[in-house]
Write a structure and sequence with these properties.
- This protein has eleven helices and 14 strands.
- Strands 4-5-10-6-7 form a five-stranded antiparallel sheet. The chain has a four-stranded antiparallel sheet with strand order 11-12-13-14, sandwiched between helices. A three-stranded parallel sheet has the order 1-3-2, with helices on one face.
- It is α+β, with helices and mostly antiparallel strands.
- The chain starts with a strand and ends in a 5-residue tail after the last helix.
- β6 and β7 form a beta hairpin.
- The chain has helices at 12-19, 33-38, 74-79, 81-86, 88-94, 100-105, 108-114, 121-127, 141-144, 211-219, 244-262, and strands spanning 5-7, 24-27, 46-49, 59-61, 65-69, 131-134, 138-140, 145-147, 150-151, 159-165, 169-176, 183-192, 195-201, 208-209.
- It is globular, with a radius of gyration of 18 Å.
- Among the domains are: 1-52, 2-Layer Sandwich (Uridine Diphospho-n-acetylenolpyruvylglucosamine Reductase, domain 2); 169-262, Enolase-like, domain 1.
- Pfam families: FAD_binding_5.
- This is Carbon-monoxide dehydrogenase medium subunit.
């Protein structure tokens, strides 16, 4: 690993100023960045550690909107009473990310800014139609995810918080890789007054909405509404773990499980 400068600012403004420097990268939980640096796949000139910025952490709800700071850890989302009350499916998702070490180091904002094709949070953010707040602007979830490891964030722009509208019902189901716990396929469903949103992760190069499923579930939000549903495997991921046809099949299976979970009474 090559040498680099290291700063640990206490404010968002200071972090943004440091990130304006050439070759500077933000360090959130470090679950992806540090391993890629060790493998020499990434070689930043400077790391801007965000862990001391209090304004980037925290969870708040007003009954209609759930706001989570970008530096809030997965473990904190998973055990938050406010998240469990507002969007229990989001709390359960967070509690099943990776392993305890990942959940206690990884952050919401780090996961979203990285946009791994098999990450869990992007499915929740997209299905819930969340708003991503940055140091410069607000970005709708439908405009945020651009492709594999690519987002709408511009150089030096810092993700500060995510605002989730509270749905009538929502849940997530995934078929996890047995070692990494990343999703071979994960499906998040969210029911709102205007209809149902469905987002799929792990199946393609980036998270995406499944509009045919949304149409079915908007008419009948029930597991049986997904019966017989098939996805065109063209364009889906193919690797040593699963072929496109299998991932296409899993989308329907995970969607049925997610809807069934969303309809269960809150515990």
């Amino acid at each position: 690993m090559r040498s680099f400068a290291y700063d640990r600012p206490a404010t968002i403004d200071r972090a943004v100023a440091l990130l304006a420097g050439e070759g500077a990268l933000a360090l959130a939980g470090g679950m992806t960045l540090l391993p890629t640096m060790k493998l020499r796949l990434s070689a930043p000139e400077a790391l801007v550690d965000l862990s001391s910025i209090a304004d980037l952490k925290g969870i708040a709800s007003d009954g209609k909107t759930l706001t989570i700071g970008a530096m809030t850890r997965h473990a904190d989302v998973a055990r938050s009473a406010e998240v469990a009350k507002a969007i229990p499916g989001l709390a359960r998702l967070a509690g099943r990310i990776g392993d305890p070490q990942v959940r206690n180091r990884g952050t919401l904002g780090g996961s979203l800014a990285n946009n791994d094709p098999a990450a869990d949070y992007p499915a929740a953010v997209l299905a819930l139609g969340a708003t991503l707040v940055t140091s410069r602007r607000e970005i709708a979830a439908d405009e945020f995810f651009r492709g594999m490891f690519e987002t709408a964030l511009e150089p030096g722009e810092l993700l500060t918080a995510v605002r989730f509208p509270v749905p009538y019902a929502a849940a997530y189901a995934k078929f996890p890789h047995p070692a990494s716990r990343f999703a071979l396929v994960g499906v998040f469903v969210a029911q709102f007054k205007a209809g149902v949103r469905v987002a799929v992760t792990g199946a393609a190069s980036s998270v995406f909405r499944c509009h045919p499923l949304e149409a079915r579930l908007s008419e009948n939000f029930a597991p049986e509404a997904v019966a017989g549903f098939t996805v065109d495997p063209k364009g889906l991921n193919s690797d040593i773990h699963a072929e496109p046809a299998f991932r296409a099949h899993l989308i329907g299976v995970m969607a049925r499980r997610a809807v069934a979970a969303a309809l269960q009474p809150a515990v």
